[in-house]
Amino acid sequence: MAKTALITGASSGIGREIARNLYAKGFRCILCARREDRLAELAQELGENTRIVVSDLSKKEDCFSLYEQVKDEKIGVLINGAGFGLFGKFCETELETELKMIDTNITAVHILTKLFLKDFIARDSGYIMNIASSAGLMSGGPYMSTYYATKAYVADFTSAVARELAEQGSRVHVCALCPGPVDTEFNEVAGCSFGVRAISAKECSDTAVKGMFSGKTIIVPSATLKFVSVGSRLIPRNLLVAMTGKVQSKKGEL
What we know:
- This protein is of the alpha/beta class.
- The protein is built from nine helices and nine strands.
- The chain has helices at about 15-25, 35-45, 60-70, 95-125, 145-170, 185-190, 200-215, 225-230, 235-250; strands at about 5-10, 30-35, 50-55, 75-80, 125-130, 175, 180-185, 200, 220.
- Helix 1 crosses helix 7.
């Protein structure tokens, strides 16, 4: 397996911690995000062989440009970590922000997975982790409707591609990380607060990387959330959405 990893969304949170984790395992890391100063700081921490690529992955042209810039470096691991959320009533949230979220959370993941997966299949090796959310395993999230929908896409898309690879007998592994609350900048960007305890980004990344290399398709870094995600399948959809709405509505009050 090639020992180079590309991590998008590497300037903070889960992406940054996954980069640290992979570097500690001997990977050369290519870090991608919008904030060059954050990337440069992390690159200096990890080592001089670390590369940074400044991109805004809400723009399709930046997604294709990123691939062109690194495609010859024999990427062995792709972490699609760029993404953000937005809290508020759908009729009141800003359309342009939602469209940017869809492009970042869905379109960028789709493009980069498609491009790198073809290379991975050609050499029959490689790992792709798409960072989704426990929200993607639920039926819908009032007050964060667009965010929940984007993460449902990522979880479903990843599961389907993983199944196709398994049926082909491919040694390429694709997985989705579906965490619940994680102590990152997410709340500040989304404009809300969690009402339950959040795990650390390091704890989340450790579970994520371990799950990826052990062959899991859906990685949920919390025993409680695993129970909730399984139990949610047994609850009628309308009731589940109503329950989720009550929980979500409190986030704006905290």
